Amino acid sequence: MHHVIVPLNAFNRVEVLKRGQASFFQMIAQSGAFGVEIRRELLTEQDLPLRTMREEIEQYQLFTVFSAPVELWKKNHQFNEKELTEIFQEGKELGAKWIKVSLGHFHKEQSNVTDLHLFLNEHKEIQLLVENDQTLYGGNIHQLKTFFESAYENGVPVKMTFDVGNWHYTEQDAEEALSELAPYVHYLHLKQVEEKDGERVTVPLQKNNHWEFILKRFPSEMMKALEFPIEPPEKTKEYIQMIVERVVLCNH
Fold first, then answer.
1. Which of 24, 68, 74, 179 has its CA 20 to 30 A from that of 231?
2. What is residue 36's predicted lDDT score, i.e. its pLDDT?
3. Cβ atoms of 78 and 109 closer than 8 Å
4. What is the 3 state secondary structure string of 74-94?
5. Cα–Cα distance list, 249 to 104, 165, 207, 212, 243 (Å)
């Protein structure tokens, strides 16, 4: 049960935009992946219609996550219902079981989690996930914890995508994030971030790195995504095998 998801932004952006995301499904399936993460920001006219893409995904029996660069709470701290409605419709056409967004501008006193609860009650077949992004407001440990506490107190069925590398971009401590947010985590985005020429860059995973420490803290069956540059795409199989090996080691 070593569930590994392959997001389409792991591959060369130019190639994905040129060929369309569906052109990678067969290779992803043959690499031993459990599922695929469709990226809304990479959808172009080269892509098949969403319903046709769903049929392709089902042909390869892949689990579907739909990731959209949409913020849950608008700048005025109100629920972003219009955009959420759009992406949930798209997610249903894709056959997505999970939809992943970022937190946005949540404010405990001004954001009404009941609005989110009512919305999710209408879409019970899809699990909403909120990820720590690379912004100082949406990727903030305290903000995320406050949001999830408010949501859970009100019975809102929302869970977290824990992006291992994004804490580096927001200059926060991943271990502190882990201790504060672990109860809410449902999905791991694995990436390795390094400093190069004064900039933070995401690089391919290497063994014996910090991401393994994070991996050890969660059940082996938790979904894990390979969100780092995979070049060439055929190396996907090697990375999946590496994750499976590390999970086995972590649990012995």
1. 68
2. 98
3. no
4. CCCCCECHHHHHHHHHHHHHH
5. 37, 22, 12, 10, 10
What is the Cα–Cα distance from 39 to 90, expressed in whole angstroms? Answer: 11
Q: How far apart are the first and last CA of the chain?
A: 15
pLDDT digits (tens, 9 = 90+) for 151-209: 999 999 999 999 999 999 999 999 999 999 999 999 999 998 888 888 888 988 888 77
Q: Which residues of 83-107 are buried (b: 16+ CB within 10 A; e: fewer)?
A: ebeebbebbbebbbebbbbbbbbbe
Distances (CA, A) of 162 to 17, 35, 86, 96, 231: 26, 17, 24, 19, 24
- pLDDT given at position 250: 66
Q: Which residue in 97, 149, 141 sits closest to 123, CA to CA?
A: 97
Rounded CA separation 95/64 (Å): 7
- Reading the block at residue 245, the tokens are 């090996």
Percent of the chain with pLDDT over 70: 98
Predicted pLDDT at 122: 97
Q: How many CB atoms lie under 10 A from the CB of residue 237?
A: 15
CB 8 within 8 A of CB 37: yes
CA nearest to 190, candidates 221, 166, 160: 166
Arithmetic mean of pLDDT over the chain: 94
Amino acid at 121: N
